[in-house]
Predict the 3D structure of the following.
Amino acid sequence: MSELFYDAAPNATRVAPERPKARAYPAKPSEITLFGTCVMDLFFPEAGLDAIRLLEREGIRVHFPQEQSCCGQPAWTSGYVKEAREVARAQLNLLDNGQPVVVPSGSCAGMFRQHYREVFADEPDTLKRVEDLAERTFELTEFLLHVCQVQWQDLGKPTQIALHTSCSARREMNTHLHARQLLGKLEKVERLEHDHESECCGFGGTFSVRMPEVAGAMVQDKTRSLMDSGAVEMVTADGGCLMNINGSLEKQEVRFRGRHLASFLWERVSGEKTS
Amino acid sequence: MSARNNILNRLRTSLAGTEPRPDDFDEALVTEPWQYTPESRIQRLRALMEAVQTEVHQLPADQWPAKVQALLESRNLANILYAPGTAHGQKLAEHWQAHGARQDLVAYDRPVEQWKEELFWEVDASVTGTVGGIAATGSLVLWPDRNEPRLMSLLPPLHIALLKASEIEDNLYAIMQKQNWSAGLPTNLLLVSGPSKTADIEQVLAYGAHGPKELVVLILEDQ
Amino acid sequence: MNQRIPVTELESSFRGRASEALADSQLRTNFRTAMDSLMRKRADAFSDPDEREDLRELGNHIKARALSQLPDLLEQLEAKLTENGVKVHWAETTEEANQIVHGIIEAKKGSQVVKGKSMVSEEMEMNDYLAERNVECLESDMGEYIVQLDGEKPSHIIMPAIHKNRHQVARLFHNKLGVEETDDVNELIRIGRRTLREKFMEADVGVSGVNFAIAETGTLLLVENEGNGRMSTTAPPVHVAVTGIEKVVENLRDVVPLVSLLTRSALGQPITTYVNLISGPRKPDELDGPEEVHLVLLDNGRTRAFADAQMRQTLNCIRCGACMNHCPVYTRVGGHTYGEVYPGPIGKIVTPHMVGLKQVPDHPSASSLCGACGEVCPVKIPIPELLQRLRQENVKSPKEHPQVKDGGAKYSRTERAVWRVWAGLNTSPAIYRLFLWGATRFGKLTPKNVGPWTQNHSAPVPARRSLHDLARQHLGSQGTKGGRS
C-alpha cells in the first residue's frame, strides 16, 4: 500500500528503502571488465592476476581498462563529496561499456552497487547510468558462484582456514555467504569459525588512521581470534581488511598470515603455488 | 514568541509542501505470529510467566479465596491488603469471616495520605483482580480504579492477582481492540508481566527491586 | 547557563578518553561480557528473521508517519492531555526545561525529588540544576542510583552501571552507605530497595521520562522492570514527565509493535515487567496517584535535526540501546569515552544537533562504518549513512553552508588540498600510472614509521609491480580497451 504513496518533496519524511529482493543472476557472459581496486593494484596485484586466471578458466575474456584507478570510497567516507564525485565519475564513464564488471573486493563493489547513487544524488541525469552500472556490478565470489557456477576439483592438500569478510562486503553484498559456498566446493579445505566472526577488523578505511587507538584494539582482537581458531591461515575477499590484518600480524611478529581469497582459490583449483 | 510557537513554527517550516505519510499499520504482523488455540493459550501464558519467577495456579473459580488463605499461611504472613468495594473483595471478606482466617484483612478504603507509613512498610501482601491477560507476552492487564487503587499491585512484597481464564487474549493488539481501549483509558492502565526485577549489576538477574518481589497468579476456570 | 561540571577527571578529547578506556582491562572485560550477552539475548528474542525484518519496517513506517505530522500530533497530544487534566509545558532549551521543572517544585515548596529513569533529564543535567537550588534529586533506577552514588554519568542508556562489576558496586555501597561489603547481588538489590523506598514515600515530586506519548488518547507510556518508574509516577503528590518532542506517536495501536521492538531489541525480553499507561492525574474519587501531572516537551536541537529530511530520521530513535550493544567501538571504549549524554552510534548522530559539532568534532569519524548498528536498529535509522552525512558537514567550509550546528568543525584547507591532489591523481590515468610506477619502483623506500598506520601495523610496502602492469602483460593488447572515453 505504501508503495503507492510517493511524496516527491525533497523535505518529505523518509522511510527506509525497500528490502532488496534476491538477486537474479544472468547467464555466464563471454567477456567481462575487471575493476582491480586501488588497494589490490598497489599491494596485492598477484591476487588480482589470480582473479583474472580464475575467470579465464571459466572461458571468459577479461578486459582490464588501463584508465581505471579508484572507486572513490576514501574521499566519500571522509566527507569530501566533490572529490569523491570527480573520481567516481571517471570510473562511471570508463565502465560504461555494457559489460559485467567484476570487482575482487566487496567494499568497492558495494560502492558501485549502493553508494554511487548517493554520490550522484544531486544529478538525476547521471542516475540512470549509475543504476546501469549497479546492475552490471558483481563482486568476485558471487560472480564465480552464481554467474559462472564453477565446478572445481580441489588439487591441494588438506588444510584449515578461517574466513574473514569485510563489513561492507557482508552487509552490502552477502559476500560471506558466497565465499563460504565457494570454499565448500573444495573438499580438502575445512573452514573453521572464529570468535566474533562478524565483528569489524578495525580497518574502516581512514578510520584506522584517524582513530588508531580504537582501530588498534580492534585488529588486535581480530588477529587473536583468527589465530585462536586453529586455522593454518586466514583468507579474505577484501584487500583493505587483508592489509589491515596482515600489517598487524607482521608487527606482532607471529607466523600466522592472511591471503586474498582469489589467490587461495586459484592455488587450490590450478595446483599452482600462489603468493 | 513562546517556546511552543517557536517549536511548532520551526517544525511546520521544515514540513512545508509535504504530505503526512499514510497509515499502513500492519494488523496481521502484530497478531498472526501471536495467535494460539484455546489449549495452548493458557500454556503459553503460564510458560512465559513462570520463566520470570511468577507463581501460577489454575483452579476452579470458587476456590480462590481458600487458595489465598493457603498462600498466606505457607508464607507465614500477617495481613493482606484488599479492595472492599469490589465483588472479589467482598468474596474474600466473606470467606475470611466464614473460616475465621487469622490473617488481618486490610481494607484500602481511604486516601493513601492518611496511612502512608503502614501502606509502605507494614502490608505483607495484596490481592487484586484483573481485566484480562495476554498469552503472547505472559501479561496481566490491570485497570485500577477508585475501588482498587494503583498502589495495591505495587507496594506489598507479595501481589496475588486473579485472572479469569476466559479473559486471556492472544496478544496485546487483540485485547486492546476487544476492550476498545482507545475509547477511554483509566488514569493508569498497567500491564504486569512478573515480579519486579533488575539486571543492572553485572547483568545478574535479581528479583524484588522496587515492586513486588513475588507475583502469584490464580487462573480461575469458569465452571 | 548550565555550568558543565565534569564529575571525573577525563581527557578532553575522544581519542584521549578512548586511550584511557582501552588501557582499563576491567572495563574492557565488563563491556565485552555485557555486550556479548545483550547481543545474544536480542538474537534469541528475534528468532524469526522474517518477523523481525517486517516488524523493523513497520516500526520505521510508524515513526516516519508520526514525524511527517509532528507539529499536528504535538498539538493533538497537548489538547488531549490537557483535557485529561495534565499540564503541558514547552521548552526550547535545557535551561528552560530546568526552570519549568524547578518552578513546579518551588510552587509545592518541595525539596525532595525522586526520579525514575530519564535520559532527557540527563540532557538537562537536572540533578545538578536542582542541587544548586537546594532540591535533592535522587535516582531510583538501580543502575542510575549506583552511578549517582559514585558521582558518575551513566555509560549506557539502558544499563547505566554496566561498566561496573558486582565487586565495584559492593565496595561503593560499603563506602557510601556504610553497609557491610557483600558480593551477593540479591543483597545489594535489597539494600537499594530499602534505601529508596523511604525516598518514594517522602518525595514531594516524582520525575520520569516517557517512552511513547500517544496523541490519540493523551497518554504517556512508560516501560520498566524494577517498579521504580511506577513508584515515581504514583507515590509522590506531583508527577513531572520530561520528554523530547520526537516521542509522540499518532495512535494507541502504534505502540504495540513499538513496545515489542523496544523490549526485544534492548534486553531480549518479550515485554518488560511493567508497561505503564498514564492518562491523567488522580481523579476526584480515587485514593492514590499524583494530584498533579505535568509533561515537559523539550526541543534542545531536535528541530534542527528535523529541518533536514535525511537527518530527520535520527528522530526515529526509540532509545533501545541495540546500536551501542552491537558497536565494536562502543564495546571497547565504553560510554564515558563519548563524553556526552548519549553514547554509541545514536549518540554520534544525535549529539551534534544538540550541542553542535564544535563540541563533538570527533563524533562522526569515531566509527569504522561497519554497519552493525544500522542492521539492528529496530526503527531502521540509517546510522552509517547519517554518520557519513555528518562527516560531510564536518569538513565543509563556511562558504558551503553546513547544515548542522557548528558544522565545519573539522574544516581544514590542508586536508582539502590533500583530497584535491588525490582526486587529480585518480582522474588522470597518465598521472595515476606514473604514481603506480613510482610507488612500486621505490616501494622499499617506504619509511618504517608512517604515523598512525605504523602504530598498529608494519610499514606498508607496495608490490614490485602493480596490477595495471601485470594485467597488461597477461592480457596482451586486448586488455587495454576501455569504455567510451
